[in-house]
From TrEMBL:
InterPro entries associated with the record: ACT_dom, ACT_ThrD-II-like, Ser/Thr_Dehydratase, TrpB-like_PALP, TrpB-like_PALP_sf
Chain's gene name: Srr_0
Gene Ontology process terms (BP): isoleucine biosynthetic process; L-serine catabolic process; L-threonine catabolic process
Protein name (record): L-serine deaminase
Keyword Nuclease assigned: no
Any Pfam family matching the protein: PALP
Stretches assigned to the ACT domain: 362-438
Cofactor(s) needed for function: pyridoxal 5'-phosphate
Gene3D superfamilies, per database record: 3.40.50.1100
Gene Ontology molecular function, alphabetical: L-serine ammonia-lyase activity; threonine deaminase activity
Annotated keywords: Lyase, Pyridoxal phosphate
Length: 438
């Protein structure tokens, strides 16, 4: 039975203005109406291949003054929500193409999802990665079952090589785009959130250039309840979606970062389907600073034991930054969509986040060169319940009077208030103490 609603008319109107030409060489971008039935069909077809992830009440609710529910898509097998769209895309391929195989060229979450699900479906899968790709990513992709080929020093080299191999061997070259099939698969997140959290007021999604999750889920949510606010969040450093919406077309010349910290948050706007749906159905798009994303990662790690990347943390970052005051007292779901952050980068992010959160501070002061003075300093720190992370003494280059030592301490505190209390206590005893501002 066909389901027709006012929201379906909005979808038809949004897609009617999409240009029919496309530069994509992998799959022809299908600009047909994305109907609620399409998303429901996708949910049925992929239900045995992806996790129905929990959407749980968060302990962060009290801190931000609203009922927060976290949709934990980072619990998917490859750590990313992209599995939903990829699995539906692969199962929708003709059988002869499934026998021939598919090929991708990147180390993104999309490629990881293709590697895993194509292998599970017994579709031959090849992944072309540049020689600069981290060994951990290469290893993981091989463990998923893909044939990984290292080629070229840049992503563009890998893509060119993948296209050539696709032509020569009849593989289907896949790259992330906003075909109706892919968007329908991603839109199943919206269905699940609506089912799992009754009486929702708003749902927050990551945005950026790759806004397929936002667009597809908005289509589902607005069909089910037009009063639910759908909000997208992107980085202030790369406001790709906001600029594309303002221009009325995807921005192709936007300078983007190659830093793995940002992932798809900083990607180019990849299609008109997603852009038109976002412009028509999404209520608000906000941008947040890198500092807010880092603190959001820290909050999720501490309160939820969730290790996520920038794309996964950016939704919560909008609340950390105070960008959505209208949601106070409301029931809000946040999609935590990705948890693929390399270990060395995770360590840097958390170290930086605790400093930004005013929980690590550093100060220097000059003491007489005797064990007694150092002991007194440590007694003050113990009394103020500050944990010493590092302490260094400098004798040689001290410019003050003889037989003195410059002591530099790095300490951990509970929060900003505790840091202020410690600073006052030290200045009372050591008026010349110098604090290193972050």
């Amino acid at each position: 039975m066909k389901i027709v609603s006012r929201n379906e008319e909005l979808l038809r109107d949004a897609l009617s203005r999409i240009p029919q030409s496309s530069s994509r060489t992998s799959l022809s971008s299908s600009n047909k109406l994305i109907r609620f039935e399409d998303i429901s069909a996708a949910a049925f077809k992929i239900q045995c291949g992806v996790q129905k992830t929990p959407c749980m009440y968060s302990r962060l609710s009290k801190q931000y003054g609203m009922d927060i529910y976290l949709k934990k898509e980072f619990l998917q097998y490859t750590g990313s929500v992209k599995e939903r769209g990829v699995l539906y895309l692969l199962t929708s391929l003709p059988q002869d193409q499934q026998r021939k195989g598919v090929i991708v060229a990147s180390d993104s979450n999309f490629s990881m999802a293709v590697a895993y699900h194509a292998s599970e479906l017994r579709i031959p899968v090849f992944v072309i990665m540049s020689t600069s790709t981290s060994p951990a990513r290469v290893k993981m992709c091989r463990e998923y079952g893909a044939m990984v080929i290292s080629y070229g020093t840049t992503a563009k080299d890998s893509q060119t090589h993948a296209r050539r191999l696709a032509q020569e061997n009849a593989y289907l070259y896949l790259e992330e785009e906003d075909s109706a099939v892919y968007l329908s698969g991603l839109g199943t997140v919206g269905l699940e959130v609506y089912e799992q959290v009754p009486k929702l007021d708003a749902v927050i999604f990551p945005a950026g250039g790759h806004c397929g999750l936002l667009a597809g889920s908005a289509a589902a949510l607005k069909h089910l309840n037009p009063r639910i606010s759908v909000i997208g969040v992107e980085s202030e450093s790369f406001p790709v979606l906001q600029q594309s919406l303002k221009a009325g077309h995807p921005i192709e010349d936007q300078a983007c970062s190659n830093h793995h910290f940002y992932g798809d948050v900083s990607g180019l706007c990849f299609g008109s389907n997603s852009l038109q749906l976002t412009g028509k159905l999404v209520d608000k798009v906000v941008a947040v600073r890198e500092e807010d994303i880092l603190i959001s990662m820290l909050r999720l790690l501490e309160y939820e034991r969730a290790t996520v990347d920038a794309e996964g943390a950016i939704g919560l970052a909008a609340l950390v930054a105070g960008k959505l005051p209208e949601l106070k007292g409301k029931r809000v779901a946040i999609v935590i969509c990705s948890g693929n952050l390399e270990l060395h980068l995770l360590q840097q992010c958390i170290a930086r986040a605790v400093t930004l959160d005013n929980r690590v501070c550093r100060f220097s002061l000059v003491l007489s060169d005797s064990p007694g003075d150092i002991s007194k300093l440590l007694e003050i720190l113990a009394r103020e319940e500050a944990r010493v992370l590092d302490i260094k003494q400098e004798h040689t280059f001290v410019t003050s009077e003889l037989f003195t030592v410059e002591v530099t301490c790095t300490v951990e505190t509970r929060d900003k208030i505790h840091t202020a209390q410690l600073r006052n206590a030290l200045l009372e005893r050591y008026p010349t103490a110098a604090w290193t501002e972050r």
